[in-house]
Amino acid sequence: MSDLKEITCLLPERLKRIVETEVMVPGKNGFCKLSEIRIRINRPAILMYNNNEEKVIENIKITSDDIAYIIQMVTRYSMYAYQDSIRQGYVTVKGGHRIGVAGQAITRDGHICGQKYISYINIRVAHEVVGCADEIIDFICSGGFKNTLVVSPPGCGKTTILRDIIRHISYGIGCVPLKVAIVDERSEIASSHVGIPQNDIGIRTDVLDMGLKSEGMIMLVRSMSPQVVAVDEIGSMEDVMAIKQIINCGCHILASIHGYGIADCMNRRELAGMFGANGFERIVVLSDKNGAGTIEEMRAVKNGGL
Asked: Where is the AAA+ ATPase domain (predicted)?
């Protein structure tokens, strides 16, 4: 369970007091619904909540000293040690909270190799939703685990659902327990901090943190002998080719993808031939109709058709 102190310990004292007051006052949204703290140079801080409500902290204008303090706390006073994370635009801290940063890009040979003059920070608050996949498990595990694709527009809970499916099959909750390997390219599923998962991903799960999906899937099949490989937000042809390879190796796949329904995914060129006996056998579609994580549809796929 996330703790407010994991967030407030990163903040300057004057902002820390405001955040604690705003999210812990009885009758207000509370920490359980806090989703982001937006920090922008020379602008007021803004608290964002899961219901899209926001609270602008008008009486605090963010200074360069505020941002420098937060960066020092996030990187433990060593920007150099976190330079690879900074290059990618975020650092994961204790509790699984993800600190996004933006400033002036440092480029080399046409590619971003770092950042300086950081002026914008997005503290994304991690919240596990244990049990959110309860109604899915029987659908994807009855008669043995089925290769599953979770389809969702941005912000509709696909990573949260994916994580809970992993937790179920790793513990064997409602299904036969299986060995799982996660390629956590953006540190969002396990939310590892110094190599330690901050989220509950089960007792039979191994994690390759911040590894490229296409390479990481093959690597984990060879090194950790998983029964299921889990990845978030597939999309490239390289991802699809790696999935085909691990399925051919006899391993199962659990993946998510940005999308707006079953037809949207099945019509994508890069996913051609990836549905049915030699690909994804189950599709779960999410929306935010009744809040993030609403299960819109569950469909079994056979021989390339529905």
From this structure: 144-290
